Amino acid sequence: MSKWITRGIFTVLFLAILGTAGSLMISASSTDDSGPKLTHTVSRGGMKVTVTEQGVLESSENTEIKCKVRGQNTVIWVIENGTQVQQGDVLVRLDTLEIEDAINERTKYAHWSQSGAEYSKAEVARATLAINEYLEGRYVSELLTLEKDLAVAESNLRTAKNMLAHSKRMSERGYVSELDVEQKEFSLTQAELNLNATKTRIDVLKTYTKQMELETLNGNLKSIKATHAANVERAVLDANRRDQALEEFEHCVVKAEKKGLVIYPSAAAWKNSPDIAEGATVHKDQVLMLMPNLSKMQVKIGIHESVVDRIEPGMHAAVSLPELAMDATVYSIASVAQPTGWWTGNIVKYDCIIQLPSIEGLKPGMSAEVEVVMADYQDVLTIPVSAVLETETETLCWVMVNGKPQRREITLGDSNDVFIIVQDGLREGEEVVLNPLSFVDQAQQAALRTIDETKP
């Protein structure tokens, strides 16, 4: 059994012992065991062990109305907490100055980007046509010119050969000089060189110039296409940014999605005011308002760590409101404690949800007192807690026998801070002394002995 009973009694009654210490020192036997004493008759019956906590009503099903505007935004107007609204009613207005500037800036960039995308689109078409223009135009024209030059060179070569042969025949007959023959030979050589040069130019055109020009044109086309893709992507992004700013401008006026009650979300325990108020700053996805389902109400209470292990879902709870009382059920108990700090007095508690029946008139924010029944004993032997004295080694009470208190060692069970179950050591109908430290010498001596033994 925990020593809390002893320590609680010691704390309260030790002062009383000290107050009467003078008289006890004068005569330790002066206490009259047969004097008047407060007693209690040991009886059987029922006993409930409960824990009582304060809480506030809330809904287990809330429609969250969130901020859809990025960044930090200032609230310039908010509807009053607890207002009944219709679908489409304005709930919150946010400052739009920065968003309007963003819309103007992003619209300008969207137009610039679109202009660049249109220009690069025309460049892609021009580069695509340039390839066909070369293959079907310039290349064919250059090839025909060279083939014409080749035909002329071949003709000149034949003419040079004929002229040389004629000069040689005439030279043999003495009609022309050797110099004239040499001139015709030089003309033949020149014609052969011109023919070979023309053939070489045709081969270079077909083998190299054409490939080089196509590579250049295709590379230029790819480069322009990449530039165009980048311009298109930039135009899309800038347009999306503009459209997003326009959409966020619309979200600066927050409206109700349905009719019902709207309330402010609960602020943190250490804050003095709600997060949603005129002049407050909110951010994207922050919950601005709640629309609770009033048919699904609950109470959240904090259960002290000393008894949290005894609380289980399904336990009965009695809920008291200012003008209403109802039976309820424990729905859940948190596995992690609430944050602690100076605002909680560093007391460790666990959130416990009490599910309420569907009753008209329940509203979020109502204060409630919740009594959770941790155990309900029937036909058990009980005595008042004030009749018990616990020491370091034993648990005692004093029973009136023939008008005098008799020391009795007992075994205890569960307690509800007023009564405690006696498992062994007492019988039904016996009279136990209440507050034995005030009336029984043996109790006072046992208490003093326990205090001495606990001193360092």
Outline the structure in words:
The chain is an alpha+beta fold. It has three domains: 220 residues, Efflux pump adaptor protein, beta barrel domain (Elongation Factor Tu (Ef-tu), domain 3), CATH 2.40.30.170; 68 residues, RNA polymerase II/Efflux pump adaptor protein, barrel-sandwich hybrid domain (OB fold (Dihydrolipoamide Acetyltransferase, E2P), Beta Barrel), CATH 2.40.50; 152 residues, Helix Hairpins (Orthogonal Bundle). The strands form six sheets. Strands 2-11-14-13-12-15 form a six-stranded antiparallel beta barrel. It has a four-stranded antiparallel beta sheet with strand order 7-6-4-9. A hairpin with a 2-residue loop joins strand 12 and strand 13. Helix 3 packs antiparallel against helix 4. The longest helix is centred in the N-terminal third of the chain and has 76 residues. Its main location: other. This is Macrolide export protein MacA. It comes from Stieleria neptunia.
> Which percent range fits the helix content?
40-55%
Number of strands: 21
Task: Using the CA coordinates, give the radius of gyration.
Answer: 53 Å
Total of domains: 3
Shape: rod-shaped
CATH homology superfamily of the largest domain: Efflux pump adaptor protein, beta barrel domain
Map the helices and strands.
Blueprint: H1 4-19, H2 21-26, E1 39-41, E2 43-59, E3 62-66, E4 73-78, E5 83-85, E6 90-94, H3 97-172, H4 178-251, E7 253-255, E8 260-262, E9 281-282, E10 287-292, E11 297-304, E12 316-321, E13 324-333, E14 349-355, E15 367-384, E16 389-390, E17 395-401, E18 404-409, E19 411-415, E20 419-424, E21 431-433, H5 441-454
Antiparallel strand pairs: 1-21, 2-11, 2-15, 3-10, 4-6, 4-9, 5-8, 6-7, 11-14, 12-13, 12-15, 13-14, 15-20, 16-17, 17-18, 19-20
Helix pairs in contact: 3-4
